[in-house]
Design a protein that fits this description.
4 helices, globular, mainly alpha, 154 residues
């Protein structure tokens, strides 16, 4: 979807932002499940992560609306990739949520034609990896960091 000069088009950028917004909607919803599986004293990182995703959601919605694009709405519910029956399962779900958002933000970086969009995507991508590190540790996953967040591990 590039222009003749090879640069991404604003339409491709908007499409990528829509996909990222869908991933953010899923993360906001999913953090409700994560929080429900944790003891009240362990929910601080859940509130922080959910607030971060809500902030990005609002920013992306504003960008798309400002471009006369219709932002994709949140679904009523999302399918879980596995049952969440323990704190370790909750942390593993949070990893899935953050990695899903990271993948979408990498696509935005690839398709971005405007500097402000690249800045937003890089900020959001960095935030997803920072949060994922803590959740990977809580889920007992190694390594806890990824050299290239949002890209396939292999």
């Amino acid at each position: 979807m590039a222009d003749d000069d090879g640069a991404p088009s604003l339409g491709a950028e908007n499409d990528a932002l829509g996909v990222a917004l869908e991933a953010v909607h899923a993360a906001v919803w999913g953090y409700g499940v994560v929080g429900a599986a944790l003891d009240a004293g362990a929910r601080g990182p859940v509130s922080t992560a959910e607030a971060a995703h809500r902030d990005v959601r609002d920013r992306v919605t504003a960008v798309l609306t400002g471009r006369d694009e219709k932002p994709p709405p949140a679904e009523g519910a999302y399918a879980l990739p596995f049952p969440v029956l323990s704190a370790v399962d909750a942390a593993a779900l949070a990893v899935v949520l953050e990695e899903g958002a990271a993948t979408a933000w990498v696509r935005v970086l690839d398709q971005a034609s405007e500097r402000s969009t690249r800045e937003l995507a890089l900020e959001a991508l960095s935030g997803t990896e920072v949060r994922a590190v803590g959740w990977r540790a809580a889920a007992g996953r190694t390594p806890v960091t990824r050299a290239l967040p949002g890209l396939p591990a292999d």
